[in-house]
Write a structure and sequence with these properties.
With about 400 residues, the protein is of the alpha+beta class. It has helices spanning about 15-35, 45-50, 85-90, 105-115, 140-150, 160-165, 170-195, 200-215, 265-285, 295-305, and strands spanning about 40, 65-70, 75-80, 95-100, 125, 155, 225, 240-250, 250-255, 255-260, 315-320, 330-335, 345, 350-355, 360, 365-370, 375-380, 385-390. Strand 14 and strand 15 form a beta hairpin. The protein is globular.
Length: about 400
């Protein structure tokens, strides 16, 4: 029996109207600075960020949903008819238009924006046109909306604003990410108790997914799982099991990597694990307010060079931010000089490829913090342990 490294504890509160209101207030301050009259958002994660409403309709490209957040005035939404009550309950917004089914009536989007006064070439509306953002509308619909229904309103790239807004997590967001991390770790420990030599990569992925679901991971998208071997690989005694994975909890991601050995580890396998976790610990020590994302990559290269392994080159990352996506800014790379600030969540993850299927790689999730002397707080735990799977 494996002793649990962490306990699950009570769940954090749900995203509520106070949280949503704070996000909208910060967004409006940025909109005013950038001269934007509104934000028009159709991406699933941006919709959820500002409404607290998660909808299965984003799985259907034929059923777009969208919101408008004016600089002045009330927000509004266009949603699938079955979601009206849920989004109204979540937001308290009085203007929620709906449609029955396909084909999607684009005119509803035009009416929503026009009601907010966003018509004509003098209006500047930020939307999801740039790096790391995606439109939830077909390009043809987006162009028709701008040129025909809104009389040439200026649609501008809001990706820098959205990046800045979501870069630093609120206390509630941190609690949701930490919960996802805890689910991930306990599910890993349970998986190592349940699997045995002879299982396939698919068996491992199924077991880990089921355990994350049992612990409260999101039902539709419980998380992501990567292994060094393919799903049809049969694990044998002495082989290493490496998993880069993470649960999703109420839309928020964990992203950690863990290692185990089928049977007693050799002295060399223990040495290798201690080496990679030692490097990870060194990188975590760099994380503090005022450090740069690139500092983490430079320290990683110092460690790799010291131990005789290939260095990171160019934009190759040794970690990244996480939140509503499993990979968000900043990038812990030589190419990213983002100054780390309190509330940023990053994932130091040094990796050494011993062969095409043998990876030394552990990953932890850490929030930069000004409230503790170390300059950071760990949201995940357990990577220091090389798990042993009984034969």
């Amino acid at each position: 029996m494996v002793q649990r490294s962490v306990g699950l504890g009570p769940p954090p509160p749900a995203v509520d109207r106070a949280e949503i209101g704070g996000r909208l207030e910060r967004a409006r301050a940025m909109m005013a600075e950038q001269g934007l009259d509104a934000l028009f958002l159709t991406d699933r994660d941006n919709y959820y960020y500002f409404t607290g409403h998660r909808s299965a309709q984003f799985e259907h490209k034929m059923r777009p949903m969208g919101i408008v957040l004016p600089l002045v005035g009330d927000p509004a939404a266009v949603v699938y008819s079955r979601d009206v009550a849920a989004v109204t309950r979540a937001t308290g917004w009085s203007s929620v238009r709906s449609y029955v089914d396909v084909p999607f009536p684009l005119e509803l989007m035009g009416e929503m924006l026009a009601e907010a006064g966003l018509i004509g070439p003098t209006m500047k509306v930020g939307t999801e046109l740039g790096t790391n953002e995606r439109l939830g509308l077909p390009i043809a619909d987006f162009m028709r909306l701008q040129t025909e229904l809104l009389q040439g309103v200026q649609m501008l790239d809001a990706s820098p604003l959205l990046r800045e807004l979501k870069l630093r997590k609120s206390p509630l967001e941190l609690a949701l990410i930490e919960r996802a991390c805890t689910i991930s770790q306990i599910a890993w420990e349970r998986t190592c108790e349940l699997v045995r030599p002879g299982v396939t990569g698919r068996d491992v992925a199924e077991t880990l997914t089921i355990e994350m679901l049992k612990l409260g991971a999101d039902l539709t998208h419980p998380g992501k799982i990567n292994q060094a071997f393919g799903l049809d690989h049969v694990y044998r005694p002495g082989e290493a099991l490496w998993v880069d994975y993470g649960a999703i909890y109420r839309g928020y991601n964990a992203d950690i990597a863990r290692r185990a050995i089928f049977g007693p580890p050799t002295d060399e396998q223990r040495r290798q694990h201690d080496l990679i976790y030692g490097i990870c610990e060194t990188l975590i020590g760099v994380l503090r307010p005022g450090a740069r994302a690139s500092d983490v990559a430079r320290v990683c290269n110092e460690q790799l060079e010291r131990h005789g392994y290939p260095l990171l080159v160019g934009p190759k990352r040794v970690g990244h931010g996480i939140g509503l996506l499993p990979s968000e800014p900043p990038s812990l790379s030589l190419a990213d000089d983002t100054v780390l600030e309190p509330g940023m969540v990053v994932t130091p993850e040094p990796r050494i490829d011993l062969s095409s299927t043998e990876r030394l790689h552990v990953e932890e999730d850490v929030v930069v913090s000004a409230e503790v002397s170390a300059g950071h707080r760990r949201l995940s735990a357990g990577g220091q342990t090389l798990m042993v799977i009984p034969c």
